[in-house]
Amino acid sequence: MEKKLKVDINIEGTQITHFSTFNLDQRFNEHHTFQLRFNHDMVEEYNAVTLENSKDFIGKNITVQFGTADSGENKFSGIVTKVELSQSHGFHGDILVSGFSPTILIDRGPDLGSYLNKSLSSIIQLATQDAPANDLNLNIKPTNTSPIDYIIQYRESDFEFINRLSAEYYEWFYYDGAKLNFGKPDKLEEVALIYGRDLHSLQYAMQIAPLKHNKFAYNPRQDELLSSEPQGSSGSTPDLSHAISASNKVFSKVYNEPLAVRVNNKKEIDDFVNNQQKALISELVTIVGNCDNPMVGLGKILNVSMSVRGTGAFELQDFGKFLVTAVYHQIDGIGHYQNTFEGVTADTERIPVAEAEKPNPDMQLADVTDNADPDGHGRVKVKFKWQCTANDVTEWLRVVSPDAGSSDKVSKNRGFVFIPEVGDQVLVAFEEGNIARPVIIGSMFSGKTGTGGSQTNKTKALTTRSGNTVILDDSNGSINVKDPSGNVVTLNGDGTVTIYAPNTLTLVSKDININAGNSINITSSPAKEGGGDGVINVTAKKSIAVAAQDEGITTNAKKDIAFTSETESIKLSASAKDITFDAAAGKLSSSSKSAEISSTDKMHLNGGSLAHIIAGDVEINQS
């Protein structure tokens, strides 16, 4: 016998006591929708074709409670978003009030967000922090409680963002009529249904699907490719086990796919793969039914039994327990109620999300906030140039280089090593178009930091933070290398090279060869301001050899010339011609312990007008 249904509908103080129809559609990972139809004259003036009173329903909260005296009540709270006047055939018509669950409050439009080292709970709380707490009651209890190194919300509403997190991390996400749940609740309400009594139709299905898969993800920190295949599952029921076995026989090939989320180690990728496997398996055994029990609700467990004829009377036979993943309620104006529901096996831990859209990110501008990579890998942290509530700096991001790697002789930093400076503006792209994997692809000048180009575009330059600069000038072909202290090396573009050091120029090598096709000039002069000594020092630890192959060697000095040997002799030798000592304006002096002057042929001592030979004894002998 059909039980009397009690229905209570209230739109912020306005009781709707009579109505034609009320429909409520509820699904996991979606907004719930409702439509209420009632006579125009209930809230508007008779014969007035207007929405004068009912227009105030827009934006108001609606509460609906329905149930029977012995079963309890099913409750729903929503928000009215639309009011319509529906007329036809000359009648005054009906008022249609429709809207959504309060989840619509966090589906306000595309937004941006950057979250560093935060748990799923913290991320969801931050994303929904400005939603009215009275209208949106949150129950956040995800299975994954560990901090996630980095997550980006990109041009997604808060609802779309949370829905994507539900899909990527395989967490339950649904509104139960009163609370928005993220994560499987601790306890699920159970409702008994009996086929042949309150359960009028039932479709129980088994199907197959590809289950064998391998996920992989590259970990640049360790330079390793992580991969994982799910552990085998036997299924919680005989039917589920059969569906798994049949799936693996038909779809025997293991398909490979990159992992969509960030992982740092083997355990993390194993967990994701096993959770995906559980979600895929949950769809192998499903149920669809129609009943008149108003307590059927989203996220509840249906304990289904069959009323079958026994030997003497009808007996109840257990059919199984199922988790409700969708339910569509219908109530008419005379209290008739029915619903259509969809479900999966009751022990389902992970539920796949079919409608979660993945962002398709464009390249983004960001500012470098840190380049002191603790691992010394040349990574940087940046902050996106976004205007949003949550804009944490990023995780350590790799920087693209024109050439990067190692070799048999260079273990690290072979290639082009330039790390952006703190404060630099950079361009961020995303590996494989995946919002979870940002990389730095280059730096960009702004109007405050950039110069160059002009009509001739003649100058190319490389400048470091301290002012070290390499300038290539295409107007004259010159190359100029300089540092902040004033040291300059210039390849002038005309066949000449200039090296300038304001203090000291030092050349160090095992051997140094200086060759000139014409001449070599070495000059040391005091500065015009009087600084410096103007001295040239040539020092060798062993010997110095000065030779002129074709002509002479000239040594000139304004004052004295001194030749000194501390331990050995000084020899002047002319193998082919003469040695001449000439002191035109003074005298020639030679002093030593003993002096010998010898000639193999003749010797002439000429004193001009007078010659003196002085000694204690003087001997002049003929040989």
Automatic annotation (TrEMBL):
SUPFAM superfamilies in the cross-refs: gp5 N-terminal domain-like, Phage tail proteins
Ranges for domain Gp5/Type VI secretion system Vgr protein OB-fold: 365-445
InterPro entries hit by this protein: Gp5/Vgr_OB, Vgr_OB-fold_dom_sf
Protein name as catalogued: Uncharacterized conserved protein, implicated in type VI secretion and phage assembly
